[in-house]
Each structure stands twice: as C-alpha cells, then as structure tokens.
Design goal:
Layout: E1 2-8, E2 11-17, E3 22-26, E4 33-34, E5 45-50, E6 53-58, E7 65-67, E8 70-72, E9 74-76, E10 82-85, E11 88-94, H1 98-109, H2 119-129, H3 132-142, H4 151-154, E12 157-161, E13 170-172, E14 177-182, E15 186-193, E16 196-203, E17 209-210, E18 213-214, E19 220-221, E20 226-230, E21 233-239
Parallel strand pairs: 3-4
Antiparallel strand pairs: 1-2, 1-11, 3-5, 5-6, 6-9, 7-8, 7-10, 10-11, 12-13, 12-21, 14-15, 15-16, 16-19, 17-18, 17-20, 20-21
Helix pairs in contact: 2-3
Length: about 240
C-alpha cells in the first residue's frame, strides 16, 4: 500500500495512506491533506492512485510543486520520491514492488475454471489417506475456489478510434492499466479490474466524456459499446 510521510525541517508530522483514487493537497480545509501554510495554494496538487501506481499533478499552484528538487506539472511517482511544497515535504513510499503487483493482478485476470488444477489432487488424495467424511470435508473446503470469477474480466476489452488521424484503429486492452490522451492537455487511464474495465481522469482541466456525459473524478465503469471522448478524440469501448 502506497503512503506519504509529511515532514517539515526533518520533523515527521504525519503519515498518510493513499487509500483513495484521488487525494487532494492544499491549504483549504476540504483537502484530503491540508497544509495550513501561505506558501501552499488553496488547492495545490492532487495524487491519483490507480492499482499500485500514483500520479502527481500540480493544480496551477502559485509557488509550484517540486519532486526531488525539480519543478513538475505532472509526475509518475516512484518509491522514495520527495514532493516539496514550500517548507513541507511529502515522501512517497510504496511497500509493494510494482512488478509484483502487476504480476499478481494479471494472474487474477487469467483465472479460468479449467486452469485451476490444484483443488483436484486434494480431493483425489483424500480418500486414500482418510475416511470418506474427510474426503467430503476436503471437497467442501475446495468448493469456494471452483466458481469462476465474474464474467467481465474474462472478456477481452478493446477500443476503436472513431475520430482523428487514426480512425478505425483498434487497441486491445490487455494491460492492467492503459493510458490515453495527450500529456499536458488531457490524460485518462483505463484499468482492468476483476469487476471489468474502468476509466479514471488523471490530468487536465477537462474530464473524459462517456456517451455525451462528462465524468467526475471517480472511476467510472465502462460498458460494451460506450463512446468515450478524451482530448477531442472519440473512441468506442467494446468487448471482443
């Protein structure tokens, strides 16, 4: 689980776990991380956390946002990155390696009823080593594993461009996280989860549009044949 350690002049003030998809930082009380200091803007920056990845975006603050001493507008956070807002520092800690997290997630995606052979040897070996009652208990214990996951993740999602220079081009959404849009203008990500595919706003003043409706900051589930518009480009989401 990713977290931030807030400090000033080397003194640790608090630890914040990034449990929300969108964590706001600023001087005003409504922010998730409030820093009551005049060097910090009312709505200074935001961190968007999707799966095991976190994106930092400066929200047009007066004094800017630094990461490891360099000013940023948008930054893909890496473990031990130090975010600087005036005299305050936020150290980004991610205790779970990204590669391991991605591997675990993809393993969840490929589960199929026929690809789970482990319960079978348990049920088969039980009668030889134990009475029938124990074999029945072993089968009951294995039963919860047998049902397949929800149908959505087993289906392969894709998008097809409906406008722009690459009209008609298709992109299979095979990754756990696919980034779409134009950096500096508007960026969104489509994430592949056990429940299906979701789209989340990451960067830009304008939010993605789905079927003519502008989304908010929260993740939005995608349905078959939804029409999505990002950075002026329209595309259709569908299942193969």
């Amino acid at each position: 689980m990713a977290k931030l350690i807030l400090s000033m002049d080397g003194l640790v003030l608090k630890e914040i776990t990034l449990t929300k998809e969108r964590t706001t930082i600023g001087r005003k009380p409504h922010n998730d991380i409030q820093i009551d200091n005049l060097a910090v803007s009312g709505e200074h920056a935001v961190i968007v956390t999707i799966l095991n990845d976190s994106f930092l975006e400066d929200l047009g603050s007066t004094n800017g946002t630094l990461v490891n001493g360099a000013p940023i507008k948008k930054h893909f956070l890496q473990p031990n990155d130090v975010i600087e807002l005036g005299k305050y520092k936020l150290k980004y800690i991610n205790e779970q390696p990204k590669a391991a997290a991605a591997a675990d997630f993809e393993k969840t995606m490929v589960l199929r009823p026929g690809s789970m052979p482990r319960p079978a040897p348990v049920a088969a070996a039980a009668p030889a080593a134990a009475p029938a009652a124990m074999a029945t208990a072993a089968m009951q214990a294995a039963a919860p594993v047998a049902p397949p996951p929800p149908a959505a993740p087993a289906r392969q999602g894709a998008i097809q461009l409906l406008s722009g220079a690459n009209v008609g081009k298709e992109l299979l959404l095979t990754k756990a996280l696919t980034t779409l849009g134009k950096p500096g203008v508007q960026v969104a990500v489509i994430t592949r989860r056990p429940q299906g595919y979701f789209i989340t706003h990451v960067e830009g003043a304008n939010f993605p549009i789905v079927n003519g409706k502008t989304l908010d900051a929260q993740a939005h589930p995608l349905n078959d044949h939804d029409v999505v518009e990002i950075a002026g480009t329209k595309m259709e989401f569908f299942y193969k």
